[in-house]
Amino acid sequence: MTTTDAYVLGRTDAEYERLRVQARIWQDATATLFDRAGLSAGARCLDVGCGPGETMRLMAERTGPGGTVTGMDVDATLGTAAVRMLHDAGHRQCRFVAGDAIRDEPPPGGYDLVFARLLLMHVTDPVTVLRRMWEWTAPGGHLVVQDYDLRTVGVYPDLPLVDEWRRVFLGTFTTAGREIRMGHRLPALFAEAGIGEPDGIEVAGRMEPLARAGGMLTATYRSVAPAAISLGVATEAQRDAWLTDMERAVVEQGGHTAMWPLMIGAYRAKARR
User: Fold this and answer.
1) Residue 77 resides in a domain
2) pLDDT at 1
3) Which of 68, 96, 137, 265 is a plausible cystine mate for 202, CB 3.0–4.6 Å?
């Protein structure tokens, strides 16, 4: 959501709400990385691809009013709404800039924490984006990145319906030139960007009954469907049939165990000059 590359998911109110739910689900995993990076009062933070602002809230809670939290995203509508929500919650240290991580620069000065979650999987040149984020990291600061390995999505016992989700969702990302293993790739990506080996890596997973996970599977399928149809990965008839079948499966196979993508985080401190 932070480059001018085509974004394969939707930009609808339903998708924005899905992003908020997803962010809250992973907030503990993200908070762990912030603690590893020593994020504390007075810090200057940059959230690249800030989306609905849920991670900015986690930053603001740690930096306090003496810090600054800047969100950057190409989706100005979503970013502006995020900052309005944060201000209403009392986090007046938050601000938003509409920007592209490849073409644009954030406000000057460098940041004690530069962060991106589920950004690199949406861009065609993640090395350049990561390298720029490292440039924006101030000496003594930390670069922190989280991304998915989408290959782990599945259900036990197996269901052809979930296999079809994998075919369509992963197939759309792959056809669009996106990396479905981005989380797994992070250490290599740090090396390619000239940053060096991460100081640490954190891997988080999530399993739950299909009765609960079905809502997120349905929301992600709906979101990717327009791109899937445009790219020839799925048809409108296949989309409609899948949505109907999933609605039935949540009731009839709701006790099956669903596994989410792995959320993999990597972080590195920048040496002081």
Assistant:
1) yes
2) 39
3) 265
Q: Which residues make Cβ contacts (< 8 Å) with residue 188, sequence separation at least 6? A: none
Its domain, for residue 106, covers 13-269
Count of domains forming the chain:
1
User: Cβ(177)–Cβ(122) under 8 Å?
Assistant: no
Q: Which residues are bridge partners to 209 per DSSP? A: 257
Question: Which of 221, 251, 223 lies closest to 238, judged by CA?
Answer: 221
Question: Do the domain assignments include residue 164?
Answer: yes
Mean pLDDT of 268-273: 89
- Residue at 235: amino acid letter: T
HEC sequence for 59-83? HHHHHCCCCEEEEEECCHHHHHHHH
Give yes or no for a contact between 109 and 226, defined as CB atoms under 8 angstroms apart.
no
CATH code (residue 31): 3.40.50.150
Indicate the pTM of the whole model. Answer: 0.92
Residue 203 lies in a domain: yes
CB 200 within 8 A of CB 38: no
Q: Is the pLDDT of residue 4 over 60?
A: no
Give dist(CA 20, CA 23) in Å, integer.
Answer: 5
Please report whether residue 3 resides in a domain: no
Q: Phi then psi for 269, rounded to 5 degrees? A: -90, 145
Task: Name 160's Cβ contacts closer than 8 Å, sequence gap at least 6.
Answer: none
Which residue from 132, 135, 146 is spatially nearest to 201, judged by alpha carbons? 146
As given in the structure block, the two tokens for residue 133 are 């984020």
Three-class secondary structure of residue 201 per DSSP: strand
Neighbours of 157 (CB within 10 A): 8
